[in-house]
Design brief:
- The chain is built from eleven helices and 27 strands.
- By secondary structure, the chain is α+β, with helices and mostly antiparallel strands.
- It has three domains: about 140 residues, Mog1/PsbP, alpha/beta/alpha sandwich (Protein Transport Mog1p, Chain A), CATH 3.40.1000.10; about 150 residues, Protein Transport Mog1p, Chain A (3-Layer(aba) Sandwich); about 180 residues, Protein Transport Mog1p, Chain A (3-Layer(aba) Sandwich).
- It starts with 6 loop residues before the first helix and ends in a 9-residue tail after the last strand.
Length: about 600
């Protein structure tokens, strides 16, 4: 089965400052004076230095320097870069940012130039201080050897410990790439997106549109005509039945009239109510399930509905695929991420991770690289080595930079990726740059795919800016059903604070209807499932209650169906449920 190749490995060809994946298979090295320890990757050799140690693989070098005193890490970095720059030609800094080293606050710089032998080379320096001692990693490699050395550089940096044992080995792996986002840009060589999925069987075209009732969000079935109205509330609600009455009354205007309840069930504590109803939208008959769940004084309400005769097919999709349990995975940089059973860690670096599911799902977070507004290749560097693009609109940055990244991937023998179209984008200011959430169509090895991304574009110097990318992706036909799991894995990554999830939720709420139809259901699926139970599925399949909007004639299910639902709910140990008189749920006149 095809799996996209790892985007971090490709960005590593563009800049050493991008954390890639760590293979973690080597032995431990401990400083004889007990000042530090690290892991020596397989294939690397060590040689003592006067003040520390040097590691080597081919022409790739890592020097570990230790000095007494409490020099500031930024000053140490500037001093070391000045010394190296005096020995190189065309020495240029491409990136500088904060980091950590051995658990201490650190700063790193990335540089390019011609080394002492005249070879186009890459250099990364990481500097840290404990207040008593200063530590520095100096990593360098000729450009044509960097791909082979990159994993070793990362393992050494991630395995570095100050005054302690070396970090444990981390199984490595080949890493898949990610997929891009959606919006309104079609990059060079791109094509128009494939036609939208058609409605499911039993449908006669989409339902008429109506303004969404105040306080509700709307999600749609991407494969059919069904919809979900969802709302949350706070206050002093004490009765789910009374809340349901108010809910039905608030839907007058969205539906042609107040929905007609055919039967309802509630638990003994009156904290949950579920009802089967029929209604019409511009004379198109619909049937649905309304649910109310109280939680303290507030709660959640959901209204799941579709064309009469179609709900039996769409109900499971509208309810949302339940997110499987996530098991925590500890990453070498001290962060964690939750993944379902059957998923695997394909790579991680400092602030970056890539995990993949068994059916083409991929979550790739934290890739970053410098981009130049204008730049010429340096002597000895591969063609297209430097990324170029326009800062700082995230969608434009995505459209200009990702084709270059995908080109690197294809030239290195990885499966072809193509950004087909950015379908939707929402951005906001972030300091001097911008960040944005983007939805996109891709082709991954010829297979239509979709991705939801977070992009940051921010200036970092004259003619230079930083491109940051996190994304989740899956084949197009599977993306709507996989979105809840993809977003849950993304939000489990502990490097992202809760405020990031809030920003993601707000962005989704403000994206276009097509994006919302996929992602709002994913974001809210757990709350939909709380208010409406999957145990309705078999009941719905056995009913065909409709309202003929032109005559008003109703075909009402008999009470036997309601009792079947109650028996199933009680049999599952989900409280003590009972059938109630449907008239008790109808709003008061």
């Amino acid at each position: 089965m095809y799996r996209p190749s790892h985007i971090f490995a490709v960005l590593a060809l563009c800049v050493t400052g991008v954390a890639g994946f760590s293979q973690g298979t080597g032995a431990a090295y401990r400083d004889p004076q007990g000042r530090f320890s690290l892991r020596v990757p397989n294939g690397w050799t060590t040689r003592p230095l006067d003040d520390a140690v040097e590691l080597k693989r081919g022409n790739a070098l890592v020097s570990v320097l230790v000095s007494e005193g409490g020099q500031d890490p930024s000053s140490l970095l500037a001093s070391l870069a000045g010394q190296m720059g005096s020995q190189w030609k065309t020495f240029t800094r491409t990136q500088q940012a904060g980091s950590t080293l051995g658990g201490q606050e650190a700063v790193y710089g990335v540089y390019t130039g011609l080394n002492r032998t005249g070879a186009g080379s890459l250099l990364k320096i990481v500097a840290a201080s404990t207040g008593r001692r200063c530590f520095a990693l100096i990593m360098s490699s000729p450009a044509d050897e960097f791909r082979d050395a990159k994993a070793g550089f990362d393992e050494i940096e991630l395995g570095f410990r100050i005054g302690g044992a070396a970090a444990p080995a981390v199984p490595g792996g080949t890493a898949p790439s990610q997929r891009p986002p959606q919006g309104s840009y079609i990059p060079p060589g791109g094509s128009a997106p494939a036609p939208a999925p058609t409605a499911g069987r039993g449908s006669n075209g989409k339902l008429p549109d109506r303004p969404v009732p105040a306080g509700f969000t709307l999600s749609s079935d991407p494969r059919g005509t069904g919809r979900v109205l969802l709302s949350s509330f706070t206050g002093n609600a004490r009765s789910a039945m009374v809340t349901a009455q108010g809910l039905l009354g608030s839907l007058r205007g969205y539906f042609d009239n107040v929905p007609a309840v055919h039967f309802a069930v509630r638990d003994d504590a009156d904290r949950r109510v579920q009802a089967f109803f029929s209604a019409a939208i511009q004379n198109v008959p619909v049937t649905g399930i309304m649910g109310v769940k109280l939680n303290g004084g507030g709660g959640t309400t959901s209204v799941v509905f579709d064309r009469a005769g179609s709900l039996r097919e769409s109900y499971g999709r509208l309810l949302g695929k339940p997110v499987p349990p996530l098991r925590p995975v500890n990453l070498p940089d001290g962060s964690t991420i939750g993944v379902p059973d059957g998923w695997r860690l394909n790579g991680s670096g400092k602030g970056s991770v890539d995990v993949a599911g068994p059916n083409g799902q991929d979550v790739s977070l934290g890739a970053a690289a410098p981009v130049y507004s204008r730049a010429a290749n340096m002597p000895g560097m591969p063609q297209g080595y430097l990324l170029t693009g326009t800062c700082c609109d995230p969608a434009r940055a995505m459209a200009e930079v990702t084709p270059q990244i995908f080109g690197h991937m294809q030239r290195s023998g990885q499966p072809a990726l193509q950004l087909v179209r950015i379908l939707d984008a929402r951005s906001e200011r972030m300091g001097s740059g911008q960040s944005g959430f983007i939805m996109a169509d891709l082709m991954v090895a010829g297979r239509p795919s979709q991705a939801f991304c977070y992009v940051v574009a921010a200036p970092t110097g004259i003619d230079q800016w930083m491109f940051y990318l996190s994304m989740v992706l899956a084949p197009s036909e599977a993306f709507p059903s996989e979105a809840p799991t993809l977003l849950a894995v993304w939000n489990s990554y502990n490097i992202n604070p809760n405020v990031f999830k809030e920003r993601m939720d707000n962005a989704i709420k403000n994206m276009n209807a097509g994006t919302q139809s996929v992602l709002s259901a994913a974001r809210e699926s757990s709350r939909v499932r709380e208010a409406a139970d999957e145990k309705w599925d078999r009941v719905i399949r056995g009913t065909d209650t409709i309202v003929d909007a032109s005559t008003g004639r109703r075909y009402v299910v008999d009470n036997q169906v309601a009792q079947e639902l109650v028996d199933r709910l009680n049999g599952a140990g989900d409280g003590n449920w009972k059938v109630v008189d449907a008239a008790q749920v109808a709003p008061r006149k």
